[in-house]
Amino acid sequence: MTAGPETHDVVVIGGGPAGLAAALGARRAGAEDVLILERERELGGILRQCVHDGFGLFLYKESISGPEYAERLAEDAWREGVRTRTGAMVLDLTADRLLRVNSADGYRLIRAGAVVLAMGCRERTREMIEIPGTRPAGVLTAGSAQHMVNLQNLRIGHDAVILGSGDIGLIMARRLTFEGMRVRGVFELMPWANGLERNVRQCLRDFDIPLELSSTVVEVRGRDRVSSVVVARVDETFRPIPGTEREVPCDTLLLSVGLIPENELSRRAGIELSPLTGGALVDETLTTSVPGIFSCGNVLHIHDIADGASFEGFAAGRRAAEFLARGAGAAESRRVRIAPGENIRYVLPQAAQAGTEGLELNFRVTVPGRDRWVTVRGAASGALYFRKKFARLVPSEMLKIRIKRAVEEDVEVRCHG
């Protein structure tokens, strides 16, 4: 007779900051059997290669390194009875929460009472942004370079150019400088930096590394190894401006051109995804379109800091435990839609139960601005649910607001003068 699948109350897919926090959140909310499945051999996710400090300022009230942050979360999880299984690759996830898993001890089926998705994200590659030129060695994503330098102790080159001003690229500009490499410049397509202001200041300005905005790499040159790149200014439609091209000698090109939530498993489970975030559509409980499956961290939307992903993980784990406690057959209430409006790139959650009070919304703006109003109004009635003036708004920083009054209708979030 064939044995049935093993069962667990809550299964968390991913052992990074969001996944570890989700497991803790579930345990603290009463879930007895919580399991983390992590495909790498160690827990921690991207934190393991982030040897710089600046982590934990909100969660632990001190500045620690990425590995220290991961270790603290993992120790908390073990101390509170969370089970972990590393080297475990989830191959499939169904809408009824059946997981197919391949690990060192073989293939197995797992049935979960609730699932929390915390698979993180991946980097956009050269092929995705279609940089012309030859295909020599020396073209790396910033995260891959960080792994090679920090975890493998490898020297990746002597002279680097960085395309894109995402936080990993900014941090690697400083890290490569520490390793004795020359960083000839960071080139950003947009007319503003896409990383946190503190990283622009601490990683570029403090080391006299130039940041050129409204610029991009239009060609990679070199045969066996990168020998140079051609950069050019771009116009307001982001097209290279003829006559502005110049060649920059280098043997390494790092790409820091955006992150993509890892939602292949989400698609297999039939979860509806947002075209704006690349992550799942969720309500205020972080429930996806499939009941009993929750999402948090960078697989839901890209976070600025690990603390933000962790706090979201705690909430997702707590909600997963609450789902177990009330039973899968509980009746659903009417939902209202939450949509981005003028100058808002995206807002999350995208839906909420009608009548929700104290609703928290995360959002990003499309362009920088100062002294701008953020409002939340009823889509049909125009009723004002929230209004606040922000001294400074930038696309690289995710902001949070709380609506105190009950939301009874579809609403729209807007940013305006």
Layout of helices and strands:
Elements: E1 6-13, H1 17-28, E2 34-38, H2 66-79, E3 83-86, E4 89-93, E5 98-103, E6 106-117, E7 121-123, H3 126-129, E8 139-141, H4 142-150, E9 159-163, H5 167-178, E10 182-187, H6 197-204, E11 211-212, E12 215-222, E13 226-233, E14 246-249, E15 252-255, E16 259-261, H7 264-268, E17 293-295, H8 306-326, E18 335-340, E19 344-348, E20 351-353, E21 359-365, E22 369-378, E23 384-393, E24 399-403, E25 411-416
Parallel strand pairs: 1-2, 1-6, 2-3, 6-17, 8-15, 9-10, 9-15, 10-11, 18-25
Antiparallel strand pairs: 4-5, 5-6, 7-16, 12-13, 13-14, 18-20, 19-21, 21-24, 22-23, 22-25
The CATH class designation of the largest domain is: Alpha Beta
Question: Helical element count?
Answer: 8
Number of strands: 25
Fraction in helix: 10-25%
In total, the number of domains comes to 3
Radius of gyration: 22 Å
| Content-based structural category | alpha/beta
Give the full name of the CATH homologous superfamily of the largest domain: FAD/NAD(P)-binding domain
Residue fraction in strands = 25-35%
Largest sheet: 7 strands, mixed
Would you tell me which CATH topology of the largest domain applies? Answer: FAD/NAD(P)-binding domain
The coarse overall form would be globular
Sequence stretches where pLDDT stays below 50 over 5 or more residues: none
Gap from first CA to last CA: 69 Å
Under the CATH scheme, the architecture of the largest domain is: 3-Layer(bba) Sandwich
Mean pLDDT: 95
